[in-house]
Amino acid sequence: MQFSVLDLYTIGIGPSSSHTVGPMRAAAAFARKAMVFRPSRIQVELFGSLGLTGKGHGTHFAIVAGLRGKQPESVDPQSLVPAYEEVQKNGRLVLNGKRNITFLVAEDIRFNRREILPFHPNGMRFQVLSARGSVVLEEIAYSVGGGFVVTHEEAGKPAKAPQVPYPFSTAAELVRHCVREERPISTIIDGNEASRRKRSETNQRLDAVWRAMQECVEAGLHSDGVLPGGLKINRRAPALYRKLRDKPESAPRDSLTILDWVDVYAIAVNEENAAGGRVVTAPTNGAAGVIPAVMHYCDRFLNPSDKDWHRDFLLTAGAIGQMTLAVMTRASLGHSGRVLHADVATTTAYVLVFLGAAGRVASTWMPDPMTALYLSAALWTGGYLAFLARFAPMLVSPRSD
User: Fold this and answer.
1) Are residues 292 and 192 part of one domain?
2) Count of domains in the chain?
3) 347-376: per-residue pLDDT in tens?
4) Model pTM greater than 0.70?
5) Taking the CA of residue 80 as centre, how many other CA atoms within 13 Å lie in the half-sphere pointing to its CB?
6) N- or C-end of the chain: fewer Cβ atoms within 10 A?
7) H or E, element range at 140
């Protein structure tokens, strides 16, 4: 198992682990390397999905923050836009917090909407320019999801799996370790983490993750207003929270009310993520609301007697996440030996499935709901048939490499 639990839970900012957190980390890493060359200027080009949707995800804000030496775990989320606007106004950037260079955001951050780099749709090219304008250092990096970043040299190479006492890649293997050792999942994972770092450090970082989740929920429950973006969507969590808070004391004993509380915790996190606030990837920003919501349910309604229960929870949930990532990585890359790229057929399949889901929801408002349901079912079926037609030959044919 090459992933640590702490790789899955990383404290960062919204709205996207792949379009905000990853680019900031890539820019910060490049800024450190660039300092050796005493650069006069830095240029960044964003490809594929970053080029197409980067502005909507605040990728340009993240790039500027990373070049300034900021990290997703510690940067003040409220500082990103003002810092970007200052660089935009002055045409200067303090690289890695140490060297003042020319940086013209309109010219030095380019959104390439037509080209996709070979390994992954979320590609970035960083260049150091000399005083004469020649390129003295170039690096290509990919933000591959969950905040993970790989360079072009690292891409496609199998990561070396560390030696752990309880290796597993399936649920059956994990359960066998538990049965043999007569220990719960959390203890097995704790043993693996102990082979990577001191237990005290693991515990400190798990505690920090839980604190960040609590702060995120608290912020989301008490932040009224409109979410960023052109749709002008009002935040829902604060009003829902006040409604639940003002219910009678007997309400928390009702199972449906308890589910309402779980929902409002998740909505609070998701809205903080959409607003670019501090969140914990679990394992992505898009999925960041689920784990904190369930943990808040445990904390409020189950009253666990062990004060360190959150560590066991995060370790156990992390084990499930590790298996999920392992399966996804093997299936997407290892099994077919192909580059991740959504072609027309794949996009069509997903569009049909999404339209089918939308039709299912919309059917409740239609004059003839059954016709809408039949149409939804047809779209859903068509989407999966299109997916099968596209990928079945790939999965039964020899690897491309």
Assistant:
1) yes
2) 3
3) 777 678 767 766 765 655 666 766 776 787
4) yes
5) 29
6) C
7) strand 135-145
The phi, psi pair for 151, rounded to 5°, reads -80, 170
Q: Residues 273, 204: one domain?
A: yes
Half-sphere exposure for 337 (CA within 13 Å, toward CB): 6
Residue 210 domain boundaries: 171-333
What DSSP letter does each residue of 267-301 carry, written as one string?
Answer: HHHHHHHHTT-EEEESSSSTTTTHHHHHHHHIIII
Q: At residue 120, does pLDDT exceed 80? A: yes
Residue 208's identity, in one-letter code, is A
Number of H helices, E strands in the chain: 15, 9
At 246, which amino acid appears?
A: D
First to last CA, the chain: 24
Residue 15: is the preceding peptide bond cis (ω within 30°)?
Answer: yes
Burial of 291 (0-12, 13-18, 19+ CB in 10 A): buried
d(CA 123, CA 121) in angstroms, rounded, equals 6
User: Within 10 A of 345 (CB to CB), how many other CB atoms are there?
Assistant: 12
Best CA proximity match to 217, nearest among 257, 259, 263, 272: 272
How do residues 137-188 score in pLDDT, each as one tens digit? Answer: 999 999 988 888 999 988 877 667 678 999 988 889 999 999 999 999 999 9
Cis status, amide bond into 283, omega within 30 of 0: yes
- Shared domain for 286 and 187, answered yes or no, is yes
Residue at 9 is within a domain? no
User: What is the CATH classification number for the domain harbouring 136?
Assistant: 3.30.1330.90
Chain-centroid distance of CA 369 in Å reads 36
240: Cβ contacts below 8 Å, ≥ 6 apart: 260, 263, 264, 267
